[in-house]
Write a structure and sequence with these properties.
With about 450 residues, this protein is α+β, with helices and mostly antiparallel strands. Helix content is about 40%, strand content about 10%. The N terminus is likely disordered. It binds iron/sulfur cluster. The site of iron/sulfur cluster (SF4) has 14 residues, from helix 12 and helix 15. It catalyses: Hydrolyzes free adenine bases from 7,8-dihydro-8-oxoguanine:adenine mismatched double-stranded DNA, leaving an apurinic site.
């Protein structure tokens, strides 16, 4: 492709599939660039980081879809998306899978998904479920607010939208709580065939490698560019398959640490691979290289290309914030049930915030730096409120510590046990509480962290 054509493509509005698509670098609404957007870059630099040649974009679509048709994993939500004739049911099936797959591996999701769809095969069925039932089924999947929001949104569709799912990505995002831009794009493209792109972690990795985008891939400016690229690249006749193919490539071939470039169906379009094979860009500017100093999409000058990393130079992210460190004392209260089997007291967490509505052993946050004796006293005070009877700190037996990593919290649970003689009266004005056997505990809506405890 000539430099002139590349420069022209990067300058203005491109036509794609009969629809005008703003070139990357322009605001989607055509307004002046918003705050945080990169400074306008020379056309040559943009061309290097885009799919400016329509023939190349078409070839990439063809190779990717042919590979997907041959190699795609057989997954229950994919089967439903292709076999379910009813558009609302199809969209619901895709929606559930997309919410479950956020932050969770496919292998873990399959069993949860099958049980969920068996129990609540339609929006209407989910809308009638209680939050307790949703939490019970979700237990162990993590990020519990996802299940709650899914159910709230299902109730909204049934009560306010007459049971009809919104039919475009824009309306899905606007009308359904908990549905963001990615989920809306996935539902609309897979269920309705709307020609709209998606950008998730897998797509970010693949696109950044294909086009050597080394600027911070979590920055709004780069994310905007990637959305423009995904929307321009999506196959107009098979948008759902194309989006799934791009994500599948990222999940199975273009993986984070050791990508299988030799098996990659789009390797001939990959600039990161080219850079790895042929080394540094040539000193004479060419559309195959980005030689423009200060390019907003290249790796920053402070972190140049590292040849030992090869294609994994891309994508790059700003350093993650360190998780907050927290300590919590947990009291496992045990009594003999009516048949002599041990029973344990569990209490319900508040209906908002971390692990909302889930059940746990009575727990109390600890200030940092407390001595063991002080921790015991804090917990004894807390348990006194639950049991309505004095709890002597010395009666609490230290069992050990359990560490659980939430996405943003490094949590240590300090676990104590307290065997009780006879019954205790629980204060009904406090959060709901109940006694459960070990078996009941495991089928209750409890978090993975509490199961570890
Ligand atoms: Fe990813 Fe390698 Fe394929 Fe490039 S060639 S897209 S780096 S797997």
């Amino acid at each position: 492709m000539s430099q002139l054509r590349a420069a022209a493509a990067a300058r203005g509005v491109r036509r794609s599939g009969g629809r005008a698509v703003p070139a990357a670098g322009q605001s989607r609404k055509g307004a002046s660039p918003r705050r945080g957007a990169p400074a306008p870059a020379p056309a040559l630099a943009l061309a290097y980081h885009l799919f400016s040649d329509p023939a190349e974009a078409e070839a990439l679509r063809g190779s990717l879809l042919a590979w997907y048709d041959k190699c795609k994993r057989d997954l229950p939500w994919r089967t439903l998306a292709t076999t379910e004739p009813d558009a609302d049911r199809r969209a619901y099936a895709v929606w559930v899978s997309e919410i479950m797959l956020q932050q969770t591996q496919v292998a873990t999701v399959i069993d949860y998904y099958n049980r969920w769809m068996q129990k609540w095969p339609t929006l209407q069925a989910l809308a009638q479920a209680s939050l307790e039932e949703v939490n019970e089924l979700w237990a162990g999947l993590g990020y519990y607010s996802r299940g709650k929001r899914l159910q709230e949104a299902a109730r909204k569709v049934v009560s306010e939208l007459a049971g009809r799912m919104p039919r475009t990505a824009e309306d899905l995002q606007k009308l359904l709580p908990g549905v963001g831009r990615y989920t809306a794009g996935a539902i609309a493209s897979i269920s309705y065939g709307q020609a709209t792109g998606v950008v998730d972690g897998n797509v970010i990795r693949v696109l950044c490698r294909l086009r050597c985008i080394g600027a911070d891939s979590s920055s709004p400016a780069v994310i905007d560019r990637l959305w423009d690229m995904a929307n321009a690249l999506v196959d107009r006749s098979r948008p759902g398959d194309f989006n799934q193919a791009l994500m599948e490539l990222g999940a199975t071939v273009c993986v984070p640490k050791a990508p299988l470039c030799g098996e990659c169906p789009v390797k001939q379009h990959c600039r990161a691979r080219r850079r790895k094979l042929f080394g540094k860009p040539t000193p004479v500017p060419d559309v195959e290289d980005c030689c423009v100093g200060g390019c907003p999409l290249c790796p920053p000058a402070t972190e140049p290309w590292n040849s030992s990393l090869g294609v994994t130079n891309f994508p790059r992210k700003a350093a993650k914030k360190q998780p907050r460190v927290a300590r919590t004392a947990v009291g496992v209260l045990e009594r003999r049930g009516c048949h002599g089997a041990p029973e344990y007291l569990i209490v319900q967490r508040p209906s908002s915030g971390l692990l909302a509505g889930l059940w746990e052993f009575p727990s109390v946050p600890l200030a940092q730096g407390l001595q063991e004796e002080e921790q015991r006293e804090v917990l004894a005070d807390h348990l006194r409120a639950w049991t309505g009877q004095p709890v002597v700190p010395g009666a609490l037996r230290l069992i050990g510590e359990v560490i659980h990593i939430f996405s943003h919290i490094h949590q240590t649970y300090v676990v104590y046990s307290l065997p009780l003689d006879g019954d205790v009266s629980l204060d009904p004005t406090l959060s709901p509480s109940r006694w459960v056997t070990e078996e009941m505990f495991h089928t209750s809506a409890v978090s993975t962290a509490m199961k570890k405890v």
